[in-house]
Amino acid sequence: MTISPHEHLIGWPRPRGGAWAAAAANDGLRIAGPYTLGIAGFGFLLEMFTSKSLTGERSTLLGVAAFAIWAFSYAFISLAITGRTIGKELAGLRVVRADGAAPGVRTMLVRTLVFPFSVAFFGNGLLLIVVQREHRSVHDLIAKTCVVYDWGDRSDEMPGPLSNFLNRAQSDSPQR
Questions:
Q1: Positive or negative, the Cα torsion across 102, 96, 118, 18?
Q2: CA gap 85, 94 in Å, rounded
Q3: Which of 45, 132, 144, 162 would give a disulfide with 128, using CB separation of 3.0 to 4.6 Å?
């Protein structure tokens, strides 16, 4: 991986633009989709075999608790094992300690547990990504982590056919 020496935090290339948003949207779909399908399937089987339903007074609270456990498990297990979620992987992002070292399980546990406080109160904790000098959110500051670009062994360039198409399209367009 090429490290840009002019970067202000630990020498790692820092994400810009919509990489965080793309990773979050992707992870949101990967959390909500399987959860919704799982609950629907479980509800169908429960009603089919026992004539009971998942609806009722306690079902909302249990549903929220189950969703929180599912979301926590997805984020914590992915981050603890690889330092990235599937969404971060697709966006070329990785979580590292603020000093650039690989974070441990305890660090990722703290980061995952504190994350809800970043999104609470209309996402004000995430606004730090935009306004803070190091572009770190509340959960990154507390866990002493940061998100960096890391494509691993992959090239961060577009695939050849797509690059060729875009180059042709750009050269065919009239210059102003």
A1: negative
A2: 8
A3: 132
Q: Is 3 within 8 Å of 13 (Cβ atoms)?
A: yes
pLDDT tens digits along 30-55: 999 999 999 999 989 998 999 888 88
Element (DSSP H or E) covering residue 93: strand 93-97
Q: With the CA atoms of 123, 17, 104 and 100 taken in that order, what torsion angle do they form, in degrees rounded to the nearest 10?
A: -130
Domain ranges (residues) in the chain? 19-170
Contact 47, 8 (CB under 8 A): no
- Round to the nearest angstrom and report the end-to-end CA distance of the chain: 37
In the numeric block, which tokens belong to residue 52? 């009971």
Rounded Cα gap, residues 111 and 10, in angstroms: 19
**Cα 77 from chain centre:** 13
CB atoms within 10 A of CB 168: 10
Q: How many CA atoms lie within 13 A of 125 on its CB side?
A: 15
**In angstroms, what is the C-alpha Rg of the chain?**
20
Q: What is the pLDDT of residues 60-90, one digit of tens each?
A: 888 899 999 999 999 999 999 999 999 998 8
